[in-house]
Amino acid sequence: MPTQPSARRLLLILSAFLLAHCLLAAPLRAQDSQDETQRDLPTLQKELSAAESSKGKDAPELIPILRQLSGAYRDKGQFLAALPLSQRALDINKKVHAQDKDDVQIAADLDLLGTLYRLSGDNKSSLENYRQALAIVEKKLEPDHPAKVTLLTNLAMTCLASGNTAEAETALQNAMAIANKDYGAAAQEATYVQVPLGELYLRTGRFAKAEQTLVFALTVRSEALDVPLVAGQTTEAQGRFYMAPAENVLGRLYTVVGLYEKAGPLLEDALKDSETMFGKNHPLLEDLLANLVAFSKATGDTDKAASYQKRLDEIFQNNIGIAYPASFPKPKSVETSLPVASGRKLYADVRVGDWVVYHTPGGPPDNKRELIKKTPLVALILNHSWNPAKKVWEPSLEEIIDLGADAKQLYDVSDADLHTEKAQIKDAPISCSTGVTTQGRSKCKIYLAPDIVPLGGLVKVECEGQIVMQATDFGRAK
Questions:
Q1: What are residue 204's phi and psi, to 5 degrees?
Q2: What is the C-alpha separation between 220 and 216, in angstroms, rounded?
């Protein structure tokens, strides 16, 4: 998937600017634990007991065993049992590095502990540990060190879980910048940031941005599925599992906005792929089941909703005292709040069947946009590409647009910054509102006439004095 848009795709970028649900967090690993092999609980417990007898209960040699044992409990969903083991590893590590309390090994253990607190529902303790770890990393490592990607993302997940969307967004934007620089937008490390970023946009009512982010994450993970399989680095089940977090949040997004035909297959695939890795009764399935309950209720399937709810309740009840304390609230689906648009809502009056054709001057039509479905929250736009050989429009990309979006959200131009100018469309002069926005390194001038041109009112775009896109035809549904 290209990361730099061509002129023909500029409209899509302008129209929709650009794992809390990552099913298993991947915390910052300490350097001396990277080469350890996975061993089962009884083996690790025996190794810990033997090491305690021969080395003492505070010996540094216990640290890797404690980390492995904690990880083994965590993988089984026994977060409360894992917590004291990670805490003990941290305490020993602090003694080992008593002369340097900001050693990165301590940051690694703080991150591990923060993840366990988050998974067990103690967001306050989770944030305390993540923030301590981040302070060490920022002091010891360069500003764009790759280790910060996971740590910032983990912190953001806890902020999301506790409703602090502002801090979550700052952390995720910083993590995304580092991930793009060090790994590239299509890397697994970037996907780890993109999924909670998509959830953030969902929670704050920016549905188009949420879809764009999540679809990209799911697409690159799907396209990358065969690479490690061919190389023998993973199984198909593991490859599918990497797609499940994006499927889960994207399925919830489509449920919230009323695009149920898109939501169901995503949520069902996410559950199936997660069950393959976790089994049927892991606590990290609860979020998925809560989303399936919400989807089934929204589509009127009360029997399925009851079945998913029963399974969710049973898993939750079985994990009280094991995964989280009795005071932990029952899992529920993601809640959203709609952002307040200060400007004119450019899609508020669209109708199914509205369409616009855009092209680059001197060439054939590049893009046709048509409204094919409208829900109370979003418009579903189908983009068509012109096939000059067949002389037909061929369907390509679907996108959603928030019905409450204003010029700032759609084109990054505030209503207060718009000015009146004339422009031509269909050989007739019309009055447009114009404003300047930034695309990459270019300053682009947009022309808007929402009372004339449907689907956002975009008449043309000029970048560096050149027209890169212009509406040539349009129609409004009756």
A1: -100, 15
A2: 6
User: Within a 10 A sphere around the Cβ of 397, how many other Cβ atoms?
Assistant: 14
d(CA 26, CA 318) in angstroms, rounded, equals 25
Tell me the pLDDT tens digit for each residue of 278-333.
899 999 999 999 999 999 999 999 999 999 999 999 999 999 999 999 888 888 88
Q: Quick check: helix, strand or coil at residue 122?
A: coil
Q: Residue 137, by phi and psi: left (phi above 0), alpha (psi -120 to 50) or beta?
A: alpha
Domains of the chain: 13-319 (1.25.40.10), 341-475 (no CATH)
Question: What does the block give as tokens for 119?
Answer: 């998974």
Residue for token pair 């794992």:
19
Yes or no: say if 338 and 437 are a contact pair by the CB < 8 Å rule: no
Cα distance between residue 82 and residue 71, in whole Å: 7
Laid out side by side, the sheet with 355-359 consists of 392-402, 378-387, 365-374, 355-359, 466-475, 458-463, 442-448, 428-439, 419-425
d(CA 239, CA 175): 23
Q: Quick: pLDDT tens for 269-279.
A: 999 999 988 89
Helix residue ranges, H only, 259-397: 260-278, 286-298, 302-319
Is the full-model pTM beyond 0.70? Answer: yes
Q: How far apart are CA 140 and CA 134, in angstroms?
A: 10
Whether 111 contacts 133, CB under 8 Å: yes
